[in-house]
Every structure is written in C-alpha cells, then in structure tokens.
Write a structure and sequence with these properties.
Layout: H1 6-20, H2 25-44, H3 48-63, H4 69-75
Length: about 90
Amino acid sequence: MPNIGPLELAIVLVIALVIFGPKRLPDLGRSLGSGMREFKDSITGKDDDEEKQLEETKAKLTEESPATTAEVDEETPGDEHVEADVVSEPRS
C-alpha cells in the first residue's frame, strides 16, 4: 500500500479546491466531520439521548449568569470590586 505524504495531500486539496471552489469547501468539511462523528457514535453505541442530555447541561451552564458586582459587594463587604477597560495607544 503506498504511503500518503504531504505532497500527495497537497495535490488532493488543490484538486478539491478546483472542483468545489473556496465557498463550498468549508461546508463540505463540516458535513464530512459530522458524518464521521455520527458513524463513530453509531459504532460505539452512543445514544442520541446521551447527546441531548449533554447539550441541555451545556445550555443550562451557559444560561446561568455570574454574580453581578452588587452581589459580590454584598457577599464580601470589605473587598472592593473594580472594573476597568485596558486601552493601549498605538506607537508611532
């Protein structure tokens, strides 16, 4: 079986770019990745229910907002909370 090196991979990528164009190439890669993920999940027996539970947990964690500055000040009255933006001026 022949070895596939960097030159062969570059040739295949150039041919794919010529055939599909630069606009469709990311979509093809994304669909190929999701297809491979679904295939792997079906082989390993991972169920859709587990995936839905994981997505729901992630959604709940992102929806929870961190404590506001007022809440932090109430919890720790001795500490000061300072918010500032870092601005750098371009050197000329």
